[in-house]
């Protein structure tokens, strides 16, 4: 209870409900476009990912298995092992650089800090599911947002709709469910 008290003190919430109720709440958050992070059991994470990752969703988002080469590069250059399983790959409309698993993990380290990322990966019982995260993918080469339908104007782009990064992680970092 002391842990819960600390946690609530830092401005979050702990939910106690049946597995069915938790699953229903997470589904509603996904479908309602609500941004939230859920720390759930591994079993619950599996239930959510199998509900979310339908064959249609896999096709629509264009996720593919992260290659061994890219996983090796993530381990070597970013120092993180076994962190991501599959992801979509989107070319930057400004410079053509492809935003994939490596770029996503790199941006995550930059925005959340190594300590936070490593602490998440070290969890033994818990899985983190991110629902409709608000971060926008940014191209590491030219700093433009990863978009579709933007207009190229010389060295930069204007307009366009941000393209969400879709991915599935490993056991502690189970991945994300997003509408767009
Ligand atoms: Zn770019």
Characterization of the model:
The chain has one domain (2-177). The chain is 39% helix and 22% strand. It is built from seven helices and twelve strands. The strands form five sheets. It has a three-stranded mixed β-sheet, with helices on one face. The chain has a three-stranded antiparallel β-sheet with strand order 2-3-11, with no helix packed on it. Helix 5 runs parallel beside helix 6 (101-112) and helix 6 crosses helix 7. It is globular, with a radius of gyration of 17 Å. It binds zinc ion. Residues 92, 94-95, 97, 139, 141-142, 144 line the site of zinc ion. The site of zinc ion has 8 residues, from loops.
How widely separated are the two ends?
Answer: 37 Å
Ligand set: zinc ion
Number of domains: 1
Helix fraction by DSSP (H/I, runs of at least 4): 25-40%
- Strand content is 15-25%
Record the SSE blueprint.
Blueprint: H1 2-9, H2 19-32, E1 36-41, H3 42-52, H4 55-61, E2 64-65, H5 68-78, E3 84-87, E4 90-91, E5 98-99, H6 101-112, H7 114-121, E6 126-131, E7 147-148, E8 151-153, E9 156-158, E10 161-162, E11 167-169, E12 173-177
Parallel strand pairs: 6-12
Antiparallel strand pairs: 1-6, 2-3, 3-11, 4-5, 7-10, 8-9
Helix pairs in contact: 2-3, 5-6, 6-7
Residues 92, 94-95, 97, 139, 141-142, 144 line the site of zinc ion.
């Amino acid at each position: 209870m002391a842990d819960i008290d600390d946690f609530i003190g830092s401005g979050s919430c702990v939910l106690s409900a049946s597995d069915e109720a938790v699953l229903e709440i997470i589904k509603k958050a996904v479908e309602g476009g609500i941004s939230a992070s859920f720390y759930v059991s591994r079993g619950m994470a599996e239930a959510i990912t199998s509900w979310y990752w339908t064959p249609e969703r896999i096709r629509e988002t264009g996720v593919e298995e992260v290659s061994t080469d890219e996983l090796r590069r993530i381990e070597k250059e970013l120092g993180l092992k076994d962190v991501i399983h599959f992801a979509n790959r989107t070319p930057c409309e400004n410079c053509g650089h492809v935003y994939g698993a490596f770029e996503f993990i790199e941006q995550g380290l930059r925005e959340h800090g190594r300590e936070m990322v490593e602490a998440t990966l070290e969890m033994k019982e818990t899985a983190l599911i991110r629902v409709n995260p608000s971060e926008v993918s940014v191209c590491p080469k030219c700093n433009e947002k990863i978009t579709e339908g933007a207009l190229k104007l010389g060295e930069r782009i204007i307009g366009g709709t941000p393209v969400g990064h879709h991915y599935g992680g490993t056991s502690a970092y189970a991945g994300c469910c997003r509408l767009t």
